[in-house]
From TrEMBL, chain A:
Coiled-coil annotated residue ranges, if any: none
Organism: Streptomyces boncukensis
Keywords assigned: Acyltransferase, Transferase
Name assigned to this protein: Ketosynthase chain-length factor
Statement: the UniProt record of this protein carries the keyword Protein biosynthesis: no
Length: 412, 426
């Protein structure tokens, strides 16, 4: 493993942009988190009454032209506009101006799950109902998986390495780790993370087929990870983008924020069912800690994957208790206020963890009234918990067997 | 990339291919070295209403390729290609059972994922676009697997007995090159010793043809499909859509040596750049592609003079062919004129995310056979494209170092360097 990366350039996270059902800026999102305010509601974007799942972490309607240049509106899916908003905030927060840097000094790696599906549905509708001539000239890229990386790179003049990573919902952490690799290899600045969302009827049907969606119509009771009443996941839209910089360079230019660093990371995959081999989540956590050169006791809080599916919650509770001991570390799931944002959730958890470190407060898990694993998990419920935070573990899983774990730590 | 390239080296020990013109690595090489083309009139669906009606299709019979009826029904064609190619690569390398599952990974590239299934399933659940509110009670039970392209990597992980890093890298038409670079980085950084990697795309479907029609990126040379893909030729007027898959077993060199594995080539360098210019357009100067080439050669510790073969992106659009020619001159200097440069898209079309992996396979096989595959259909070069594009006929040529370049929507520009197998330490 790479250890603490002693021989390689160190990095620091200097900017955060966040978009969530509870706010289109990092500050709005964070204050909603600390108020315990949930953005999960009955879908309004389309009439969900004919579907077996009806609630989502939907971002309320907003005037996109206030945030995104008008010429980009016809060529962007909703999630790409949100990504452009987050990227702009992250770079402004960092006070970084890529156009003033050497030509190939800045790159972007984002996470995706399924691309711009709402845009894609409109074009499929045009194709099938009217004919091929009615398909948009933008369809060739507006839906595709790396569209956010491409649009962000164009908007901000990022000409260094660029890619999108897809590992279902675990890909957000994999993207951030890939960005760290690019910094270590000599790229001074990376924009990384993920903003995702897919709330059109066509994507909704695909999501329902995952078999993991909560059928509860009650926004307060639909998504209850680690609760005895848990009955499935609620999805939402949003995520976060971070500016990650070479630490030396950030210091030289006097970057005003030093939120922290990615101290450790690992990804594993579950074995084939029936193989008799153990699942991979606990191993991902252990390896991420080893990569960070940290012991379990060094971790101040865990941002859980918190699926909301009983068997998956039990597996995560056991993995965490196995590593940290029963109730050995505070565990929280602020995604109870946003839903699972596909590839955007884990990056938003990383952003939230960095804000926890900054402000010395653990964000709450809301709506969980009947904890299912109290003997294993010290769940931060209902109200924020003030305490010093110098490091956090973020856990993320993707359907199919993906496990990723990432440790953030206060900047040295 | 000197920060992580010290120490651990990465080699290719197995190759599997599903390509237009044939399933299997041997058939693939026969096609390329013979300079035969596999482009034809689209047969996978009725393309009559569309502007461009040619494509390079795979003659792929799931049963003959070893898939069960259940697998053929459940998996999108992209995943079917990937599974068949992965099985060939694993058998070729003999690595199965010889690598520790925790140290084994899967990284796949794709531009379009399960587009073909999503296109046809959408038509079904929306009553051919009549209703925005699609019907929950129609459509495949496997829709979620089509929704997320990561399902392809998950299927391969089980086949490869991989419990290490698993995922998909997508950068549109450079996916097949970038996923290899990413997988090699993971091995160098110590996350795995063996990674099955490559790229697959099978998107010859109405929505794909329509979206390229809309921007006239594909050729409309429908009357002569066999000669429709003409990279660098003055008569070229767009690319021919293709499909296919190439999968590799990448392995840490010492791991491969310990089990006496046959080595095709070393993955010596990779770099990618964004042009930050346009989602579809290219500026003529080729600056970003040139920088990717320079960075990949630096990582491999090669001078331009050491490049023996360039596998071009060569998509046969005017803007690409000129952009790429300028990028090669900029990065390789005067040597650009001395190095054979060929585009196999002339024979197998442009299979979007998969093509970078197919081209890397062509480079590895070119190194093995000391033969440069030709650019078919090149009779008279565009005057602005004045390199040695190896027209029509393959050429015997010893290759110690091959460079593969890729360019795609989103502005992505990438380069990968393969070296002939390192000599044994003994």
């Amino acid at each position: 493993m790479s250890g603490g990366g002693t021989a390689s350039p160190r990095h620091v996270i200097t900017g955060i942009g966040a978009v969530a059902p509870t706010g289109l800026t990092c500050a709005d999102y964070w204050s909603a988190v600390l108020r315990g305010e949930s953005g999960i509601r009955t879908l309004t974007r389309f009439d969900p009454s004919g579907y077996s799942a009806t609630v989502a972490g939907e971002i309320p309607e907003y005037t996109a032209s206030r945030y995104v240049p008008g010429r980009l509106l016809p060529q962007t899916d909703r999630m790409t506009r949100l990504a452009l908003i987050a990227a702009e905030e992250a770079l402004a927060d960092a006070g970084a101006d890529p156009s003033a840097m050497p030509p190939f000094a800045c790159g972007a790696v984002t996470a995706a799950s399924a691309g711009g599906f709402e845009f894609g549905q409109k074009e499929l509708e045009a194709l099938w109902s009217k004919g091929g001539k009615y398909v948009s000239a933008y369809q060739s890229f507006a839906w595709f998986y790396p569209v956010n990386t491409g649009q962000i790179s164009i908007r901000h003049g990022l000409r260094g390495p660029g890619a999108a990573v897809v590992a279902e919902q675990a890909g957000g952490l994999d993207a951030i780790a890939k960005a760290r690799r690019h910094i270590r290899s000599g790229t001074p600045l990376m924009v990384t993370g993920g903003v995702d969302g897919s709330l059109s009827p066509w994507s909704w049907l695909c999501l329902i087929r995952s078999g993991r969606m909560s059928a509860s119509p009650d926004p307060e009771a639909a998504f209850l990870p680690f609760d005895r009443r848990a009955q499935g996941a609620v999805v939402g839209e949003g995520g976060a983008l971070l500016v990650m910089e070479d630490a030396e360079r950030a210091r030289e230019r006097g970057a005003s924020h030093r939120y922290g660093e990615v101290a450790g990371y690992a990804a594993t995959f579950d074995p084939r069912p029936g193989s008799g081999r153990p699942p991979g989540l606990r191993r991902a956590i252990t390896m991420a800690l080893a990569d960070a050169g940290m012991a379990p006791a060094d971790v101040d809080v865990v941002f859980a994957d918190a699926y909301g599916v009983p068997a998956l919650d039990a597996a995560e509770a056991e993995a965490l208790a196995g590593v940290f001991g029963p109730r050995g570390v505070p565990v929280t799931a602020p995604k109870t206020m946003t839903g699972r944002l596909l590839a955007g959730s884990a990056p938003l958890d990383v952003a939230t963890a960095l804000l926890s470190i900054r402000d010395g407060v653990l964000p709450p898990t809301v709506h969980v009234a009947s904890p299912a694993h109290e003997h294993l998990l010290d769940l931060v419920r209902d109200a924020p918990r003030e305490q010093r935070v110098s490091s956090a573990l973020v856990v993320s899983r993707g359907q199919g067997g993906f496990n990723s774990a990432l440790v953030v730590r206060a900047a040295a | 990339m000197e920060g992580i390239s010290e120490g651990r080296r990465v080699v290719i020990t197995g190759i599997g291919v599903v390509s237009p013109g044939g399933v299997g690595r041997k058939q693939y090489w026969q096609l390329l070295s013979a300079g035969r083309t596999a482009t034809r009139t689209i047969s996978l669906f009725d393309a009559a209403p569309f502007r461009s009606r040619v494509a390079a299709e795979c003659d792929f019979d799931p049963a003959a390729a070893g898939l069960s009826r259940r697998q053929a029904r459940q998996w999108d064609r992209t995943t079917q290609f990937a599974v068949v190619a992965a099985r060939e690569a694993l058998e070729d390398s003999g690595v199965l059972g010889q690598s520790e599952p925790y140290r084994t990974g899967v990284m796949m590239g794709t531009a379009c994922g399960s587009t073909m299934s999503l296109d046809s399933e959408y038509a079904l659940v929306s009553d051919e676009g009549k209703s925005w509110l699609v019907d929950e009670f129609h459509g495949s039970p496997y829709l979620y697997d089509y929704f997320v392209p990561s399902s392809m990597a998950a299927e391969l992980a089980w086949i490869c007995e991989a419990e290490g890093p698993v995922g998909v890298v997508s950068t549109g038409c450079t996916s097949g090159v970038d996923v290899l670079g990413h997988a090699a980085d993971l091995i160098r950084e110590g996350h795995a010793d063996v990674i099955t990697t490559g790229a697959s795309d099978a998107a010859i479907s109405p929505i794909t043809v329509a979206c390229f029609d809309a921007i006239k990126a594909t050729t409309a040379r429908n009357d002569t499909p066999e000669t429709a893909s003409r990279p660098f030729d003055r008569t070229r007027n767009g690319f021919v859509l293709g499909e296919g898959c190439a999968v590799f077993v990448l392995e840490e060199l010492e791991h491969a040596r310990r089990r006496d594995a046959r080595v095709y080539a070393e993955v010596a360098g990779h770099a990618s750049r964004c042009n930050a210019y346009s989602m579809t357009g290219l500026s003529d100067d080729g600056l970003e592609m040139a920088d990717a080439v320079t960075a990949a050669l630096d990582m491999a510790r090669h001078d331009p003079a050491e490049v023996d073969y360039v596998n071009a992106h060569g998509s046969a659009t005017k803007q690409n062919d000129r952009h790429e020619t300028n990028a090669l001159k900029r990065s390789l200097g005067g040597h650009a004129y001395d190095i054979p440069v060929s585009s196999i898209k002339s024979m197998i079309g442009h299979s979007l995310g998969a093509i970078g992996a197919l081209e890397t396979a062509a480079c590895a096989l070119a190194i093995e056979h000391s033969v440069v595959p030709p650019t078919a259909n090149l009779h008279e070069s565009d005057p602005e494209c004045d390199l040695d594009y190896v027209p029509l006929v393959a050429r015997e040529h010893r290759i110690a170092t091959a460079l593969s370049v890729a360019s795609g929507f989103g502005g992505f520009q990438s380069a990968l360097v393969l070296d002939a197998p390192p000599r044994s330490a003994a």
